[in-house]
Amino acid sequence: MSFSASVLTLYPEMFPGALGLSLAGRALEAGTWSLETIQIRDFATDRHRTVDDTPAGGGAGMVMRADVLAKAIDHASPEGDARPRLLMSPRGKPLTQARVRELAAGPGAVILCGRFEGVDQRVIDARGLEEVSIGDFILSGGEPAALVLLDAVVRLLPGVMGNAMSGEEESFENGLLEHPHYTRPQEFEGRDIPEVLISGNHKKIAAWRRAESERLTAERRPDLLAAAQPLAK
């Protein structure tokens, strides 16, 4: 069974975007995963296809309506659909590589892309939406965040990456940032490839890479160190 993504958006033309290229694009063409875009405005009931209204209690901006979104979600994810329902939101739980792996191992995802000031809380509660954030910053809408999430998931689907090992030593896979990489030429502007990497001693290479990962993580993301997985013996 392939991974099936349904994206609810006001801008379906933003998809597949970058997901139609490279590894994700080839996997999409091959049927390894599927992408459905759903125009939220199709579920509005007035002639203007209104999907938002002024915030209760006053304030700037507009809020996406619960009734319209509920109809769109129910259309995309009818009763019995096992896929998680995600809402891309800056106040959501930060997306992690562990959560990406969980999603990649599942049947797919229904992804709601918010716009304006946000989404009526009642539809979040009523439809069990899992709020997901890709970082502590604000985007103009959830679509770029959805593209990021799907790119992270699709590359982990079976057969998408040519070498399965290429995903095992990347940043966050073992709780650490990834070690530095080098390739030919041997010397570049007076800088050489570290001798250990051309020694042929795989145990020493693994130890060097682990040490470099720990060093970079301590410098840039010390919060990750406590939860890092130990080096395999």
From TrEMBL:
GO terms for biological process: tRNA N1-guanine methylation. Keywords: Cytoplasm, Methyltransferase, S-adenosyl-L-methionine, Transferase, tRNA processing. CDD domains: TrmD-like. Its EC number is 2.1.1.228. It catalyses: guanosine(37) in tRNA + S-adenosyl-L-methionine = N(1)-methylguanosine(37) in tRNA + S-adenosyl-L-homocysteine + H(+). It is found in: Cytoplasm. SUPFAM superfamilies: alpha/beta knot. One of its GO terms (cellular component) is cytosol. The keyword Methyltransferase applies. Residues 6-225 form the tRNA methyltransferase TRMD/TRM10-type domain. S-adenosyl-L-methionine binds at G114, I134, G135, D136, F137, I138, L139. It is an enzyme of class 2 (transferase). One of its GO terms (molecular function) is tRNA (guanine(37)-N1)-methyltransferase activity. Its main location: cytoplasm. HAMAP family: TrmD. Homodimer. Belongs to the RNA methyltransferase TrmD family. This is tRNA (guanine-N(1)-)-methyltransferase. It comes from Mesorhizobium ciceri. The lineage of its organism: Bacteria, Pseudomonadati, Pseudomonadota, Alphaproteobacteria, Hyphomicrobiales. The gene is trmD.
